[in-house]
Design goal:
Radius of gyration: 19 Å
CATH architecture of the largest domain: 3-Layer(aba) Sandwich
Strand order of the largest sheet: 3-2-1-4-5-7-6
Helix content: 25-40%
Number of strands: 7
CATH topology of the largest domain: Rossmann fold
CATH superfamily of the largest domain: Vaccinia Virus protein VP39
Length: 238
């Protein structure tokens, strides 16, 4: 949820409020105003703008990669729920994907501007033929890492939101088991909730290491965290 506006001035002459204040427009809901104020005051938003990333979420992948060394030159990457393309931007840079022969594949039902070094598919990943389209885009190669930052629009009811995102994680994990090369990695966003034991069990059967991670760029007031599964065993264990 958006943070309550802060940064009220002390009243001393010459001091300025370091926080950006956003006035509530007549036709704007208070929740929208608070969201906008948080965006304007968010250092990751400013950093993304300065460094050319399309969204602050790019730093979630950057921080996960810095800590766990996930992305290496030459890797083949699949990014599920890729819009607006920030994770593809990070992956292209990290794996040194050639624009003439991209090794980063992104998919989303939303239209995205091109990302040099990535092949982008405009398609809903939950559609039955989406996995085949991604496999075709890989050109017969296995993927080294499957990323999923997918999330359904939130309802505000945390248990419901958690169940909806877990359903996406299940679909993404099922796909990852079909396309990952031995030793591959799967990363997916989840909400903290306690109903993911079945997914964890499945991942533990198929990967040598499975754990949760919350990068600093993931807001502290957000229930999101990331499931990281490393070392795909190469043979699917259902």
């Amino acid at each position: 949820m958006p943070n309550k506006p802060t940064g009220k001035g002390s009243g001393r002459r010459g001091e300025r409020d370091l926080k950006t204040r956003v006035k509530t427009a007549r036709k704007r809901k208070t929740s929208s105003t608070l969201w906008l104020q948080r965006q304007l005051n968010d250092p990751y938003v400013a950093k993304a703008r300065a460094e050319g990333y399309r969204a602050r979420s790019a730093y979630k992948l950057i921080e996960l990669d810095e800590k766990y060394k996930l992305l290496k030159p030459g890797m083949r990457v699949v990014d599920l729920g890729a819009a607006p393309g920030g994770w593809c931007q990070v992956a292209v840079k990290a794996v040194k994907s050639d624009p003439e022969n991209p090794t980063v594949i992104g998919i989303d039902y939303l239209e995205m501007d091109p990302v040099p070094g990535a092949r982008l598919l405009q398609k809903d990943f939950t559609e039955d033929d989406a996995p085949e389209a991604l496999i075709a885009a890989l050109g017969g190669h296995k993927a080294d890492i499957v990323l999923s930052d997918m999330a359904e629009p939130t309802t505000g009811h945390r248990p419901t939101d958690h169940l909806r995102i877990i359903a996406l994680v299940e679909i993404a994990a099922d796909f990852a088991l079909d396309v990952l090369a031995p030793g591959g990695t799967f990363i997916a966003k989840v909400f903290q909730g306690g109903t993911e034991h079945e997914i964890l069990g499945m991942l533990k059967r198929n990967f040598t290491s499975t754990f949760h991670a919350k990068p600093p760029a993931s807001r502290s007031d957000s229930a999101e965290t990331y499931l990281v599964a490393r070392g795909f065993k190469g043979t699917r264990q259902d």
